[in-house]
Records
---
Amino acid sequence: MSPRRNTPRRRGAPARDADPDALMLRVTGGQRRETGPDGEWVLRQISGAAAAKTYRCPGCHQDIRPGTPHVVAWRPYGDGEDRRHWHSSCWQRRAHLR
């Protein structure tokens, strides 16, 4: 059984989950650009609910377990092969790791 809605939907408005891309943006928080001492990056916040696989953090070389919120970062240019999953805290202190 699905949970009860607290507010009625406007007549004719599409359901929130009708567009899978909209669901992805809502769950992950979308993308943003960030410039730091190591250059420009595109970031996406991954919520714990959306984190389904285990990744290796390049900052601390420890596993990011399923269900752990984290950051995915890649360069804005190129083919996306440099996408890396980071612990949020490791990403914030990455300038001190080099």
---
Amino acid sequence: MDGLQEIYKRLKRLMYFILAVFVLGWGVTPYPEVFAGLIVGSLFGIYNMWILVRRMEKFDRAVAEGSKVRSLGTALRFASGVAVVAIAILFAEHIHLVSAVIGLMIPYGLLLVERIVYHMKHH
């Protein structure tokens, strides 16, 4: 099975490609607010994935050493989700709220699809 860092690197590369498509959509289509929301949400989604990967590595080390395990950063990821909504509400004329929330979930959806594809290929 792939290591956590390899999975994260693959997802990050894919997210950068998706972000480039969103930037093109923001600049070219008549829906810049929707694409701005997708961009903001996706950036925070990448940040949330980074937090999750970092915390999972700490979790693995703590389990291997037999020490106490702290949280996996759920509160921090929840706070960044609240920040996305706050930014979308604050700049409502420039950022579409629903697309910001969808953008926030894109990395998790990609992770799910990537793992399904991996298991279909290797099992």
---
Amino acid sequence: MIRVTLVGEELDGFVSPSAGDHVKVFLPDESGESTVMRDYTPRKYDAEKRELTLDFVAHPGGPGAEWAMHAQAGDELEFGGPRGSLVIHNPNGRWLLIGDETALPSMMRRVEEASSDEHLQVLALISTEEDKLPVDTNANVRLSWLTRSQRPNAEQTRATDAGAVINALKANPPVPGTFVWLAGESDMVRQVRAFLLSELNWPKKCLRAAGYWKIGVAEGHEKFE
């Protein structure tokens, strides 16, 4: 991950009440002649300092990652939003967060903002042990870093493999009343969502799932109702 902190008077009045928020970042394409848009989670905002933190997954080829990997102090970044926020309330205070690297900014923000009376289970899908991130929270958190299968196939193909997540859910299913938040590569999300609904009989009202990206598609966002 690459962390970039934006500062400036233009950030005065910025509001992001939900860890599921996103801003639309405007970036040059590979030719540099036109603009592409990508969504990123407001990782943290300090209103007093007017500082907005964004985390980028470091991977070659993506316009956001390429910008972040070459960013220097003084560079400008244009963005808009968040246009709206969905703040989910669960009276039980129990949450299960599932996602891959693209969902880490949302999940880590949610964990860090959680109160001491909340209980969170986190299943974070990563490629290697070196991809683990530190987290500081007052909540009761059980954080599991799940490494993808290291079969000799393409890394992108492994990104769709939901096996590690499903096995973790079989071994330690969430307790009733837990709200499940799920995001990441679309095919992986679809498989995990199907397992939750069909195998664990999880109620749809306690589940929110979204595909943050899809292999082979530049703008691969997908919502699951």
---
Amino acid sequence: MNKISIIDTEEAVSDAVSSVTHVPATSVLAPTVEVPSGKRIPFAWRDFSVGKDCEVGTTILRWEEGTVVPEGTFRLRLAVSLDIRHTIQVEARDSETGVVFGVFDFTQAPVFQIAEIPLTREFGKRVLQVGVELRQIDGSVDLRFFAPSANSPTLLQPHLMVAGAAETADVWGEFLERFRDLSTVQTFSWMEGCLLEGGYDLNQRYAQLAYETDLKRRLRLYLNEHDLIYENPRSEPVDNSIYGIEGTLPFAVIGRLYPEHASVQRAVDFWLSRKQPDGHFASGAIMDGSMLSAEGSLCVAYPLVVIARRRGDVILEELALDQFRIRRDLLVSEDGSIYLRNRLGDLSFRNWARGITWYYLGLVRGIIELNDRKDIEDLRREAHRVMHYLLSYQLENGLWTNFIHQPSSGMDTSGSAGIAAALALAYQHGILPIEARQAAARTKDGLVAYLTADGLLEGGTPSNRAGEGSGQRRVIFPVGMGLAAQLLVALDPVDDSSSCVKES
């Protein structure tokens, strides 16, 4: 299959040959552990358990006998099928000798979280020969992972990734292939929303590669003719309902492609039900409980604008504008810092890179949708202010740290990709000057160092549970890939006349 070349954007298609081999496990021996009551495995994909103690039985993965792989480096991977809210590590052992190959860290892992262990070639060959025993370290709950299956993506099944020589790798080409095979699918929320936005933009830019087919295939995982079928971030079924404001970003793409689907009106009804009354500290804000959050800019205001515009609904459009302005007024401090949360006046998570993404990318996309309005100059000025603030903290490698004003907080590829996507989009649509595009291009160059040979983006701050978003641990987080895809397309613009997405 032809791949997009991001190295030379004058040539949209490259015939680069992949130097990566994915070798999925072919069988699993695991204890029978029922899915907990009130939980559900997404899409009815097969999964298996790793018990919290040895008494329930061992879990062993095996590969087809006699499998031969090319020379290269090995990584062993697993992906979570049921939400984890604990500190969890899993040893991978030689199934015959008990020698430990390495340890997976699945602490506070959301569904679809991929973790990997680098293997020596000797260990890689042993995995193929005798298999892998999985064992929890100080486990307190039964874990579940996606199993070998003909129905789920290979990269979400237990597999070995074998990478050839680095100099032959086409990592951006591999990155874009990951949008074709469902291996980056995420929980229906801000997570999947970022991937849907990236897929939508890819289809807008690269019409000849028909990303619309892949985008609609993703959406069909969640939508049938009438229903919205999904689990919330705790793996609880919430079909035909909206679990919270962080779950509504996907409706920007759904509202474009399937504006008449019943779930779109459910989202609108939900937003209206969460509007705060006069006298509230955030009067007019659409928010969950007592917490005003930056997520509301991207996950509420932006999709609300999209739907309002397609309906010609001026009232909804004004409500969306209110969301941007309320968050500007209540999440930005006098020194220009941007906070993730305001809980009854108590601000927290100052300058968290991914929080800035939610605030800024939502704002920029909202301005783009409303570009013809003459009364949003205040929002344009805010876009300029934020640009100058962010550029003062951009590092030499083009990225930003997890808390952008704290160099010691460690690099975050997901927040960096999101910030850069906002800058590049704002330049592309005439909102910001050339400095924005130049900064975004530096980010794209800096992200290359964090792409695996098969195009997964490492170095992302974990899902922000139990303080995990504040720490130094970094993971493969496809959310960052969705944001990076938006960045790539914004840096490689095309005339609207060649767009191929059909909004029907």
